Amino acid sequence: MNALQPAQEHRLFVGRLLVVAGLIALLTTIVAIQVFRLQVWDHDHYATQSTHNIIALLPIAPLRGRILDRRGQVLADDRTSFALAITPNKAIHLVETIHRLQKILPINAEDQKRFNHDLAHAHPYQPVLLRRDLNPDELAAFAVQRHQFPGVEIQTRIKRHYPYGSLFAHVLGYVGRLTPAEISENQTADYAGLDSIGKNGLEAQYEALLKGQPGNQEVEVDARGRTLHSRLCNSAQQGTTLHTTLDLAVQQAAARAMAGQQGAVVALDPQNGGVLAAYSAPAFDPNAFVDGLSTAVWTRLRDDPGTPMTNRFLRGSYPPGSTIKPFVALNALHDKAVTDDQRLAGGAYYQIPGTKHKYYDWKPGGHGAENLREAIRDSNDVYFYQIAMRLGVTQLGNGLAHFGFGQRSGVDLPGESTGVVPSPDWLRQRYGQTWYQGQTVMMGIGQGYLLSTPLQLARATASIANGGRLVTPHVEQSPDSVTQALDFSPDDIAVIQDAMRDAVTSGTGKSLANDFHTIAGKTGTAQIHHAQRNDSGRVLHNTNQLWQDHALFIAYAPTDHPRIAVAVVVEHGGHGGRTAGPVARAVIDAYLNTVTASEINP
Amino acid sequence: MNWRIRLLRPLRKLDPALMTGIVILMLISLAVLYSGSQESIRVVLAQLLRFAVGIVVLVIVANTPPERIRAWAPALYAIGIILLAITLVAGKTSLGARRWLGVGPLTFQPSELMKLALPLFLAYYYSQQENVRHWLSAIAGFVLIAIPFLLIAKEPDLGTAAQIGAAGVFMMWLAGVRRRWFVGLVILVAVSGPVLWHFLHGYQKERILTFLDPQRDPLGAGYHIIQSMIAVGSGGFWGKGWFNGTQVNLDFLPEAQTDFVFAGFAEEFGLVGVIVLISTYLLIVLRGLVIAYESRDSFGRLIAGTLSLTFFLYIFINMGMTTGILPVVGVPLPLISYGGTAMLTFMVGLGILMSVHAHPRTHE
């Protein structure tokens, strides 16, 4: 191949240069088209995306509605809480900063553990909480030296607060951390900016009312989410205040009287069903749940043999024992199984005709022949064994159902138990067993499979107190209370009322006798299955408290115009009159004293 | 001859058209950097200082006759190769790649030297070659390209290697190497692509996959492309206005002052600004091609043509990647991006163009 001449070479070069120019023209056109496409054709799309980048609609959390007692005392509200937070990328040296902070504020291992956990899940420019709930002294101590701690700041947080701690634990419930499952269940927008939700009790029941409506603000942010400007769009609406029928003084009296014991107290206004007090012992401090339970507290609550998390007044199912007798008796009068002046044979025990088994009375030797009023006063077991046999299991069960036993009361609290009113069908379905007559006999004195919650007992007691109206218990104050007139004659009810009055003045409930108020009541003792008994069914002396029977008491006062109906269960309390009675009396006194006082000095 | 004439005489070697383009680009650069740096005077002054140094270098190179530049070409190439070899053995590692050579506090990328040394040496070689149509000239060219290409690709810095390789191939094209070699090269690249894929590093594969589908990982690798396209697109016809670019000023656009400076410019100055910018670049590139066309000296026209085309290539790659038509490779926008090394390279290249134009037919 020959070498090219300079002229040829130049022509070749120019040709190649033209190709290059063509390439440049082509590539420039491609870029120009793409820029035109982005900036003109698809401009709207990218302009929108650019706006989405910078404008964020941020939620504003609403204050939760307060919960008040009947006199306006605050039982739950939102408090401002101060927390110490560190923004990791602003702090100079994280470990050293925390170390220096520890010299001016207490920061315990639990705080550090939570901080390290949250730190691992946070962006370096997001503040992470180190210490929650600073008290004013700690706040002041930090404020003085804050310039020495770059990246450390005080955060103001709104936090649910229960000023009376464990006092209203089971009735109020508590709020806790909103879980992802709860968010997807509910409208996400309704919970924008909120991190807690009512988990139990009134807080859960009235969640929709208490929650409030989140507001929002338009915020201009940069790529790191830092706020540059903000503009309020909708302010948050605080949740509605919940006015309850609860009475602080009565609840306090119940808690004091139950101190150191396990059990439950329910006090109702018998006229309208308003819940004056509802206490389950032992209780827990709902404030511990608000920011999420620490492992230590959770372990302690879970392993406590007294099961403080159990709501005994709503879910505790106890054999009502002799407290069932007034209701059995009223049914017997109504069904004409017995008349009020008819005396039935007494004795140490009862035997079903044609059988050998002896059903003993609680009192050694038993009582003499008594009429109905006397039988209730003395809690005559042999009398009620006979009444039960006269009624039969079906009539007995249907009668008790009239007073609300075996059904939910309809109270405005979540998780209520039904209790049990047994029947032959129920026994077959539940345990595959055949009913025998002895079980009917035991049902007459509130033993066996018959189970009632303290709330059911209080409700049934209220229906005697108010002259035969079954109220629907409620904690929220509502003008229209639901009551249901029972089909009992006023005369029959008066007999039962007098008998319960007798029980307090001269019968088994004498511990309630009181110079100030006229109280009517009935004791009860619920047998514990595993208690050791002698042949007559009496518990052998045993120092172990867990082998003792449960003590029960139902009462109402004053007798002429009842304003309070109470049911008390003291677990392993032995005889009802001795341990449960004083609790009932303390509750009644607390209420009637304040009511009287407020009526004298309105 | 008084001192004033003595001082101004070197400026006579400067090409008015090229200088106009350079000054416009410098003004655009300062405007964009001032806005993008939250109005930082420090950033603007630093860039201004670099421009000043760049202009001094440009004037010196423009006053250096092409034959002297040509005489240095073999030595520059040799030094470049040696430095690349040293870098591979003893270079500073940053982000998993050995690209820098350090002498005390100074660091230096030998690949930057090679961007000029390779075209110069190839121009030197082909300008003295009797018969470029001979197959040996083609083989020699490929070998001269392959040595630095492989050394840089090994760092690894595939982007720079490809740019240097491309510049070498342009040179061979302008020198008149037979077309069949270029056809063969295209076929070879197309065929070996899938094979080479297996030799790519993870991040290199990731970049290419991300380019093909930015939504694959919108907060990770795709973030740059997505935010850059939003910046360009949201600028619209007139732009959001100086200082009003939210993508660039609120940190949504990454590398807003270096590799993605075009997106910030397009956001604030819109299609109108982009047209002005592209026109300015075309002015420089076309002026360079005209210089190559007019040059009667074989070395001069080869180096002028190649440098012009390479200059354009940088513009195309940078705009292509910021607008989403090319994968993200670290290529600065000539004379606009913040940074010194690349700007110096461009200034030297433009100086060579002016030198070729100012010293006609001194060779031969």
Tags for this model:
heterodimer; A: 602 residues; alpha+beta; 5-stranded mixed beta sheet; 5-stranded antiparallel beta sheet; 21 helices; 19 strands; 39% helix; elongated; B: 364 residues; mainly alpha; 3-stranded antiparallel beta sheet; 4% strand
Description of the structure:
The complex is a heterodimer of chains A (about 600) and B (about 375). Chain A has 21 helices and 19 strands. By secondary structure, chain A is an alpha+beta fold. In chain A, strands 2, 3, 4, 5 and 10 form a 5-stranded mixed β-sheet that branches. Chain A is elongated, with a radius of gyration of 36 Å. The termini of chain A are far apart. The model of chain A has no long low-confidence stretch (mean pLDDT about 85). Chain B is mainly alpha-helical. In chain B, about 70% of the residues lie in helices and about 5% in strands. Chain B is built from 14 helices and 3 strands. Chain B has helices at about 5-10, 15-35, 40-60, 65-90, 110-125, 135-155, 160-175, 180-195, 200-210, 225-235, 245-250, 260-295, 300-320, 340-360; strands at about 90-95, 95-105, 105-110. A 3-stranded antiparallel β-sheet of chain B has the order 1-2-3. In chain B, a hairpin with a 2-residue loop joins strand 1 (about 90-95) and strand 2. In chain B, helix 7 (about 160-175) packs antiparallel against helix 13 (about 300-320). The chains are: A alpha+beta (about 600), B mainly alpha (about 375). At the A-B interface, helix 1 and helix 2 of A face helix 7, helix 10, helix 12 and helix 13 of B.
